[in-house]
Amino acid sequence: MLQGFIAILLGLGLMGALAIAMADHLALPLQRLAEAVRNMSAGNFDTRVPAISSGEMRVLEDGFNDMAGHIEEAHRSMQSRIEEATAQLVFQARHDALTGLVNRREFELRLDKALDTVHAGGDEFSVLYIDLDRFKAVNDACGHLAGDELLRQISLLFQGRLREEDTLARLGGDEFGIMLANCSLTKARQVAEDLCALSAEYRFVWQDKIFAIGASIGLAPVTRDVRDVQEIFALSDAACLQAKELGRNQVCELAPATQTDRRRDRGNWASRLASALSEGRLIVEAIPIRALHAGVPGGQIAELSARLNEPGQAPIALSALIDAAERYDMASVFDHHFLETAIRSLARATRQQMGMRCMVPLSRAAIANSKTGDFIASQLEEHGIEGQGLCLMFSEDISTHQTSQLIEFSRRMRELGCQIALTEFGGGVSSFTQLRTLAPSYVRLSLSLTRDIGDGVTSTALLRAILEITAEQDIYSIAEDVDDTPLLEHLRKLGIAYAHGKAVAPREPFDAWFEGAVMRGSRG
């Protein structure tokens, strides 16, 4: 009896030990699998488990490793596609879709970086501003396809004469910019003359027509006296304009001004502006904007622009005026003149219960000066209106370089009832970030997105993406300088909300537009 009991106890002990051993044999592989699953969930897609078990547990280990391998490969493939798409988007944001050259935005960034080096004691450089002389003749005679092909050929022609360290950019339309790095002024002059001669000798052939082209080139040496990128453009653009005025197909040079020159020139500009204002030669213009869909707010809308009529000279356009005004710290003259014109007209329209909106472009100085907001508030109060009809416009360059100032300015303007619009939208990689930080009511699309829309699916795809994102945020899109009806219809079908340009309505003096379109409603 006792021996049987002892045998039973021994048997139970042996079974317990065997059960523990089996539990350990199963528990350890399961623990390894559980740990591997946790690692995979944390994003460690190269996780594997040792395949050292037998039986059903080995099947589980092999199955996990196979599954992990497939997940790792899918993740790697997806990551590669994301990186490729990101690189493509960055490239498109920095380059011109038609020619493949860097665009104006990227050119400005490179100039800014090079100028910082000069200010720090580095090598000076030179900039060429090039305007093709007979591009319009090709466009008018043969159409936009011929004009596009001319731009591509000219781009290749210029590239073939430049060094690898130089930068060639398409600035817009038929205008190009070149940054000649580490280049003496003597050498820069020679390069400019060579390019001028090259463009004069070049012949563009389209079907049965042959065109001589030529180019006017402005040269601006960039020294420590140059304050910023805007001054570089002002100098080189003014030199290019001078080359055109002197007969085209030649090179003109403008050097940076010294502090003494600036004080003298500022006094000259102040006198010219004062005379122009008192004599009514600073003409504020209206660029009518039309809604393209029934579902967007309509009514009479205009963007304000201006020209300066000088005796015996061609009118000076707003872009050149602003360049000069910012160069001599006088931009507030235009800002205040625009704002006074817009708010005075809005007040009159409000009293007559006539709906209108004025889109007013402001300079970078307006954002930097805290008194701009005070001026707008006082003007609205003086005329007894709120700011609902006033939309303040800022370029992407301003919103990129003065973001914190613009955020605060935008907040205050919205408190007054005003709206905000960003211009040149989509031309830089920071555009989508600005939608979140600035919350604009409108974006005026970059010409690089709309002008070359027929060149392929890439620009159209990027434009569609922008329109989808802005629509989700209740932001209205505006296409600028739309000059033909087929393009206007194409942009409408894509979903763009508003447009301006020759296909919509010609620009005209603001007072004439206000009296006709707003007060009498005589324009559609």
CATH architecture label name of the largest domain = Alpha-Beta Barrel
Rounded to an integer in angstroms, the radius of gyration calculated over CA atoms is 33 Å
CATH superfamily of the largest domain: EAL domain
Main β sheet profile: 8 strands, mixed, barrel
Which geometry do the CA atoms define?
A: globular
**Tally of discrete structural domains:** 3
Overall mean pLDDT score?
A: 83
Into which percent range does the helicity of residues fall?
55-70%
Give the oligomeric state of the chains in this entry, treating copies of one chain as homo and distinct chains as hetero.
single chain
The secondary structure category is alpha/beta
Give me the count of strands.
17
**Order of strands in the sheet with most strands:** 8-9-11-12-13-14-15-16
Q: What top-tier CATH class of the largest domain fits best?
A: Alpha Beta
CATH topology of the largest domain: TIM Barrel
SS element count, helices: 19
**Unreliably modeled segments:** 7-13, 16-23
Question: Can you characterise this structure?
Answer:
The protein is of the alpha/beta class and 524 residues long. The protein has 19 helices and 17 strands. The chain has 3 domains: 92 residues, no CATH class; 162 residues, Reverse transcriptase/Diguanylate cyclase domain (Alpha-Beta Plaits, 2-Layer Sandwich), CATH 3.30.70; 258 residues, TIM Barrel, CATH 3.20.20. Helix 1 packs parallel to helix 2. The radius of gyration is 33 Å and the shape is globular. The termini are far apart. About 3% of the residues have low confidence. One of its GO terms (molecular function) is catalytic activity.
